[in-house]
Write a structure and sequence with these properties.
The chain is α/β, with parallel strands linked by helices and 584 residues long. The protein contains 19 helices and 17 strands. It has three domains: 75 residues, Roll (Ubiquitin-like (UB roll)); 117 residues, Alpha-Beta Plaits (2-Layer Sandwich); 359 residues, Rossmann fold (3-Layer(aba) Sandwich), CATH 3.40.50.1780. It is 33% helix and 14% strand.
Length: 584
């Protein structure tokens, strides 16, 4: 083929498409070139210099991450000079880095630490030149520790290129360069939406989730607290990675068992309230679609980073947002009302812990007064998947060998639709399954909607519901959503009917399976495996549509009345407001 390039890497012939980088060509023949600044999600920009290689006898060294292959190249990925240069680069980085690995949240899972070990660096010939800098702990979600920054630039590229938020940038020059929020304000004052993708892509411990495990340990030993817990859909297909399992391995039963071993009084599942969200949001969509088409499109609201972005960057769409709260918040409110009443427990004693794949969920629990619909803070604390894994390990629980256990009804049983909330397109697919029934009073024969699946940046489709056309769009990764919003704005300015009726947005690539609180090292290959794990969970489910969940039916019969009714609005819905991009 004309567009194929032949070359050699360490004497091994390789044929790759034109445009392939040396780094990726080497991986095809099982040669790993070390990197620090490179990440497959991001445009390579050759900041660190670790990935240098040589072409033939040329004295010029090439950076493999950003150099494309050329015909006849004879690439050497290591020789004494290359190894020594890489070692020197690492030693220089370490000379400006604090030597406190045991106290670092990334200890044992740090890319710099791993490379230093691989190159056998025990002593550093360069004097230590690191200068203490203050940590930024001003948000409820993330901690920025500039002392640890190695200036790889990944966080800034993620924030600017992938997420279109522009909360982080390089400030200063030369050795004084540091990563910081734009305009050198605090993180809480910046445009940060707390999505955590900066921490998920940081190779070291410069940005990480705010650890709140101590709060949970203290609550669990407090005899006056009745501790309950919920786990999000995406947690169950990622937590196994923290224990050496393949991404996508479904660990639901073992997570339930581990939470009981940690002495939670009741174990719930956010998938249950995802089913509830579909009943509320689906009913809201059908009402708008059939009775108030001028209020379309309806836009999903379960992603708190997306809600934060909308209130800051696109408040002209706040009336299009579904008023339904996220599943996390719905379950929190119900635990201190419906569950407390059914079980005869004082709601003041209930302590709700959420296990989420998301750092923005830590922000969501106190984002506005609607998060206290129960009369108390509906969710008391949020832990990420990473934090739960650390708790399980520190408790000495043999997680992989635990017997599978079930959840506690009445807030635990779920359908396949509920589990799909963890993937991009999943909320849309779950909603369409119920919308079909709400519009036609008939069950779907085939419940899968292939048009909303996959990793395309924006998926657009027209769904036929017995002759009724529903035009949908699904976007994930914040940098992709503006093109959808601008299309709607064009329709408004032209006086046209909006081109979409229903829009789903998730802030993180792949949806919640790629959330900022998930096990580190996510790539599209890993996201694909986690996604398949949730689709498998859906396919294994006996019930696959939210309106079939018997516990959801009982909840409405015994407590809520009807979807979008008075009690449902009191506990399960919220409102939105315009907020400044820079906090004042």
């Amino acid at each position: 083929m004309d567009n194929m390039i032949n070359l050699e890497i360490n004497g091994i012939p390789v044929e790759v498409p034109a445009g392939t980088t040396i780094l990726n060509a080497a991986r095809k023949v099982q040669v790993k070139i070390p990197t620090l600044c490179y990440h497959p999600d991001l445009s390579p920009w050759a900041a660190c210099g670790i990935c240098i290689v040589r072409d033939g006898k040329s004295p010029k060294l090439l950076r493999a991450c950003c150099t494309e292959v050329a015909p006849g190249m004879k690439i050497a990925t290591h020789d004494p000079e290359i190894v020594q240069i890489r070692r020197s680069v690492l030693e220089l980085i370490l000379s400006t880095h604090p030597n406190d690995c045991l106290q670092c949240p990334r200890s044992g899972n740090c890319e710099l630490q791993r490379l230093a070990a691989a190159f056998g660096i025990r002593d550093n010939p360069y004097p230590n030149r690191y200068e203490p800098l203050p940590r930024d702990e001003t948000t409820t979600s993330l901690v920025l520790n500039p002392e640890k920054c190695i200036k790889c630039g990944r966080c800034a590229l993620v924030c600017q290129q992938m997420q279109n938020v522009w909360a982080l940038e390089f400030i200063g020059r030369g050795e004084g360069t540091r990563i910081a929020p734009a305009a050198d304000v605090t993180l809480s004052e910046s445009p940060c939406i707390k999505c955590g993708q900066c921490s998920a892509h940081c190779p070291v411990g410069a940005i990480y989730e705010k650890d709140e495990t101590a709060k949970v340990w203290n609550a669990l030993k407090d005899p006056d607290k009745y501790c309950v817990v919920q786990i999000a859909p995406a947690v169950r297909v990622a937590i196994g990675e923290s224990f050496g399992l393949e991404p996508g391995t479904l660990m639901t039963g073992k997570v339930y068992a581990a939470l009981r071993r940690l002495h939670f009084n009741a174990v719930f599942d956010t998938n249950f309230s995802a089913d509830l969200t579909i009943m509320e949001e689906g009913t809201e969509f059908v009402h708008r679609f059939t009775r108030q088409p001028e209020t379309l499109p309806l836009i999903t609201s379960c992603c708190p980073a997306w809600v934060d972005w909308m209130e800051k960057y696109a408040p002209d769409f706040k009336d299009n947002f579904s008023t339904a709260k996220s599943p996390q918040q719905m379950l929190g409110a119900l635990s201190k009302t419906y569950y407390a009443e059914k079980m005869g427990i004082d709601p003041a004693k209930i302590y709700m812990v959420s296990i989420m794949p998301c750092t923005a969920k830590k922000f969501e629990i106190s984002r506005d007064p609607h998060m206290t619909a129960s009369g108390y803070q509906d969710v008391d604390v949020v832990l990420t998947t990473r934090e739960l894994a650390r708790m399980i390990k520190s408790a000495g629980i043999d997680f992989l060998n635990l017997p599978d256990e079930g959840c506690d009804s009445i807030l635990g049983n779920y359908t396949g639709a509920g589990t799909l909330f963890g993937v991009t397109g999943g909320v849309m697919e779950a909603a369409l399954r119920s919308a079909y029934y709400l519009i036609t009073s008939e069950d779907l024969q085939k419940v899968e909607f292939e048009a909303v699946r996959g990793m395309d940046d924006v998926k657009v489709a027209e769904i036929d519901i017995k002759g009724t056309k529903v035009r949908i769009a699904v976007a994930h990764q914040m940098g992709n959503i503006e093109q959808v919003l601008n299309a709607i704005r064009e329709d408004r300015e032209a006086g046209r009917k909006p081109r979409f009726d229903f829009i789903e947005v998730m802030a993180c690539r792949g949806g919640c399976i790629g959330g900022g609180g998930q096990p580190l090292g996510a790539t599209d290959a890993i996201r694909a495996k986690r996604t398949l794990g949730l689709y498998d969970d859906d396919e294994r489910s006996v019930l696959r549509c939210s309106y079939h969940n018997p516990d959801i039916k009982k909840l409405y019969e015994d407590y809520l009345g009807e979807p979008n009714g008075e009690m449902a609005h009191k506990l399960l819905h919220t409102h939105y407001r315009e907020r400044s991009i820079y906090a004042r």
